[in-house]
Amino acid sequence: MNNNTSLKSSSREKDNILLRIYRNPYFRYIIFGAILALIPIASGMNILPSSYITIMGSVMIYSIVGIGLNLLLGYSGLISLGTAGFMGLAAYVTGYLSVNVNAPFIVALAVSIFVVVLIGVIVGFVSLRVAGIYLAIATLCVSEILRKTFEELEWLTNGFSGLNASFPRLFGIQLNRKSTYFLIVVVLILVMMLTHNLVKGQMGRALHAMRESEVAAQAMGVNLLKYRLVVFAIATAYAAIGGALYIFFIRFSIPGTWTMALSLNILGAVVIGGLRSIYGTVIGCFVIFAIPDIVLKPLFGDVNGLQYVFSGLVVILVILFYPAGVKNMREDFFRLCRFLKKKINERKGKGEIQ
Amino acid sequence: MNGFAILLQIILRSLETGGIYALASLGIIIIFRTSRISHFAQGAMGMFNTYVAAVLVDRMGLPLGIGVIVAVCLAVFIGFLVDFLVIRRAKNAIPVTKQILTLGLVTIFVGLAPMVCGVDPLSLPKFIPTGNISVAGASLSYNGLLNILIGIIIMLVLFYTLLKTKLGIAIRTTASNEPVARLMGVPTRNVTLFAWAVAAVLGCLAGIMQAPSTSVTTGVLDTVQINALIACVLGGFQTFYGPVIGSYIIALSSNLLNYYVSSVWGNQLVYLCILIFVVFRPQGIVGKKVVKKV
What we know:
The complex is a heterodimer of chains A (about 350) and B (about 290). Chain A has about 350 residues and is mainly alpha-helical. Chain A has 2 domains: about 15-325, ABC transporter involved in vitamin B12 uptake, BtuC (Orthogonal Bundle); about 330-354. In chain A, about 80% of the residues lie in helices and about 0% in strands. Chain A has 15 helices and 4 strands. Chain A has a two-stranded antiparallel sheet with strand order 1-4. A two-stranded antiparallel ribbon of chain A has the order 2-3. In chain A, helix 3 runs antiparallel to helix 11 (about 225-250). Chain B has a two-stranded antiparallel sheet with strand order 1-2. With about 290 residues, chain B is mainly α. Chains A and B meet through helix 5, helix 6, helix 12 and helix 14 of A and helix 4, helix 9 and helix 11 of B.
């Protein structure tokens, strides 16, 4: 009898440890990364077509950028339309450094992040004093300036013919497509963990206070400009990481890639995923950047502009009818289950009475 | 050509492009004032209607007048549709995401245009194909003159409507305080509906005026859209005439800088100057400062 209880309690403890590990957010992020890493393995075993590697790699790159944008939009309510410009600048700087200067991956990445964040902070410092729509317009200006610069500054960008790059060399090892994919997975997971910590930490509390009421937050001693600037800098830094990974993974960049359409698509992904949700952003990026290639193309063939109409429609429908975004889907699913169960029980009850 | 003639030529050219920007920015400001939404889709909606006009004229061989009339009617319809299907239903949306609605509209129209009208670039002819007049050594095409005049006439009609008619008063009351206007019996829903139609028509006209100088692609109004938005910031979101002034300033300064300073960096310089200007005067040239209350 006694033996039995102790066995029971020990098994419960074991359950608890497992549960605790399962509940650990970092562990979940790692599991999520492992699932993403399965895709090239699956395509190696001919379960998935190998084009999925490129598609999912791009989705993850845009997710990194989107997570930064989500911080900005979700917590400070500011819209940045300069994402594509910042990404493009990082892509060109990294590409130039690794092709022409032969700089190692880490150095090129660090330099490009530094350059982009510097520009971002200057723009932010200028435009964040004014609330409202001004950041959107200012970043739109900057994005436009950068796009025109990409077209004209041929020594850096190779103009309209485009800049070619190769897969990165990391610690003396030349990576190929699959290993670059794994590198992107690792970076994405690190970015997700970092963002998680930022949001849960002291800065996150300040941001939450700002979101509820800027005036109240100010009264509590939260420096609005400082936190807006920090969030904007983080968003540009993530955009820079995304741009650098883009040039190493896709290995080609033309000025036409870095237009407002890209900024809009990433914003759309953030909205679909749900504000202030890390996983949601990744799912949103999957919907915007992968569904058209994976689902719509085989289904409808190569219809011009279908991808745009699809993403625009999804964005509008989500804003109008499901404003909380995909992140709410799990809870809504459970709620639906409970509701159905209740209905069924009611029916049964009625049947018995009659 | 002497220096003065060149300057005059630049000014005349700026009046034409400035008019196009002004039409687009008027559409943006009307929407902003009545619906409280920053209208990023002005260019995209105008582009779609221009595409339809170009298909009718270029591919079906209809006369330009009919193409324009059909496009304007379509613009009214699309304006109604957007307000009725999307904007009206967004009352409960989160304010942040409400701004992104029009960004979603942009992607829809950019995708819809090639889907409906094909990907081949089309061209739209000028109203008056040939002929120049010369003013003190500077030459201006008849079509350019027509564009300048059309722009100015439309603006005059619009401002007359806003300032003198009953409809204009309804729009202005809705713009200054929507709930109170509704309480006072102003049919704000119809005002908003009307505003969207007007904005769509203005965008469509801007597109038709812009199209002959380039080919009709999905990006035909991209620069117009961006400059019109920036003109709204420069002129201030508080008045209806601020953006018009802003539009002409942007067109003139970018043409001047492109000619006298650098044809490569001129536009970038204009944007940079505006960015710096907004820091010192965030309410724009003629705007009033909005004081945020607790």
